[in-house]
Amino acid sequence: xxxxxxxxxxxxxxxxxxxxxxxxxxxxxxxxxxxxxxxxxxxxxxxxxxxxxxxxxxxxxxxxxxxxxxxxxxxxxxxxxxxxxxxxxxxxxxxxxxxxxxxxxxxxxxxxxxxxxxxxxxxxxxxxxxxxxxxxxxxxxxxxxxxxxxxxxxxxxxxxxxxxxxxxxxx
Length: 171
Prior knowledge:
Elements: H1 5-35, H2 40-66, H3 73-91, H4 96-125, H5 128-164
Helix pairs in contact: 1-2, 1-3, 1-4, 2-5, 4-5
């Protein structure tokens, strides 16, 4: 089977974008974890997802390598800087933990959409060797998004309770 050149090109661009997206995720999560004091359940889950994200990056690099391609250093750097700036912006908010929770949930859903698209392109292009890794990344992002959704109420209640007791509730 001949792979259409454009399908391959779209797939490689998507993989490079996903690699940069995962680096952006690390630049968002790592500063959050380093600042969390009052929400150990959030810190534990973020630490676990940082490990998953590092695995996702390795999977993407393997797929790119299978196509004799490499990630885009410029995209990785640009999105990492964007993520770091977003994390810094939230650190100044009085409700930092809530803003981080909202942003993390939105970002996880963005990643889910990206991986759904990549799986579809892999299927269209016949890139069957890539599908299992992309689906693994997708499942991890779905699990993280579900965890964030399931725990938002508890985090919000904890934040409000700390504020009611005049405690530092930010993070």
